Structures are given as structure tokens and as C-alpha cells.
């Protein structure tokens, strides 16, 4: 069975395995209304889409940020109801961007389970080059926040050299923007303010800045592609 977009539908067991949670957790979130109901297929089997998987990942991220289930419910009700899996992934990236850096050690078997696909040596090397994992042995250090993006990039028809060059460009511009924004924040706070005041400003501004950067980049990239296609 497939979804409306042609992607393979997931059973509750497959959804839980891909998300790294238990089936009981999926059913609990569904009962609380945090996940939309599945599509009921033949033999009354529920089928879940990539949107379910992305929403589940967002819920887990919000919980890692320390939000209660009641707060998560309120947060989700404020989101547009028709967000795609990609939109939800971007929203989760914004949420995760102000979380403390965290990596975890996982076996190759666990990495493949979370990825929902087998990973060859070439895949591991590419993920390592993108800093999704550290090392290519067994186990590896995994950055969970980068896993979904890294998996999507594995299927992009572009040479590794071009992909890594693009990553370098993004990092250089991101660091330059971060330096300039940090300078603006320092000027706004003033030299006499306490460390607590600086941390408070950062906590309030960081998610807003990340969202603004994502939105500006998406729109700028669309404009550039539109101009490129016009010229070709």
C-alpha cells in the first residue's frame, strides 16, 4: 500500500521502528490526539505516512526540550493542519537548533533501524563526510538531529565533491552570519549587562533567528533557481 504521494505506507510497527520509539508510545500519542489517525486499509490495518513520521519526530524533539505533553498539545494545535513532512522536518530543525549539542553511540544495526534502510560502506562514508556520524566502524557516534537530512542527501544525484563543497559554502556563510548577529546582540545587551541577561536574550532570539534564516534562504534559493531556469 502507498500514500497519496506514492510513498510506501507504514504499519504501526514500521512507524515505531523508523522513529525509534515503541508501538505503545505511538498508540499513546495517537490517543492524546498528537498524531492524526492512520488510513485504515484492508483487514483493518492502519497505515501511516511520512507526515506521521515527521510529526512523531517533532513530538519527540519537543519532549527532549523539556515540554510537557499538555504544552506539546498546545504547540501542535497552533501549527497549520496541512503541513507536509518536509515542513514538519524544517519546524523540527528550528526546534532542535537551540538544543544542546548531543551525539550518541549506536551500533550499525541500530543506525540502519533508525534509517529504515540498509547502509553500505559508501553510505557510511558519505554520512561521516557530512558530520552525521563520526567514524565508519561499529559502533559510530550519531548526531540524531542530522540523520534525516543526511539520509535524504544520500539519494541526491550529485557527486560527493559537489555536496561537500556546498556544505563548506553553507558553513562559511552561516558562521559569518552568526558572527555579525552575535555582534548585534552584544551591542543590544551592552557591556554592563549580566551573563544571565545575555543568556535570556539568546534564548528568546535564537529560534526566531533560525526561522528567519531558513525562510530567507528558502525564498532566495527559489529566486535564484527561477532566474537560472529563465536563462537556460
From TrEMBL:
Per UniProt, which keywords does this protein have? Answer: DNA-binding
Any one Gene Ontology MF annotation carried by this entry is: DNA-binding transcription factor activity
User: Pfam families, from UniProt?
Assistant: MerR_1
Tell me if Cytoplasm is a UniProt keyword of this record.
no
- Superkingdom assignment: Bacteria
Annotated ranges, domain HTH merR-type: 9-78
| PANTHER family to which the protein is assigned, alphabetical | HTH MERR-TYPE DOMAIN-CONTAINING PROTEIN (PTHR30204:SF93), REDOX-CYCLING DRUG-SENSING TRANSCRIPTIONAL ACTIVATOR SOXR (PTHR30204)
Name of the protein in question? MerR family transcriptional regulator
Native source organism of the sequence? Streptomyces triticiradicis
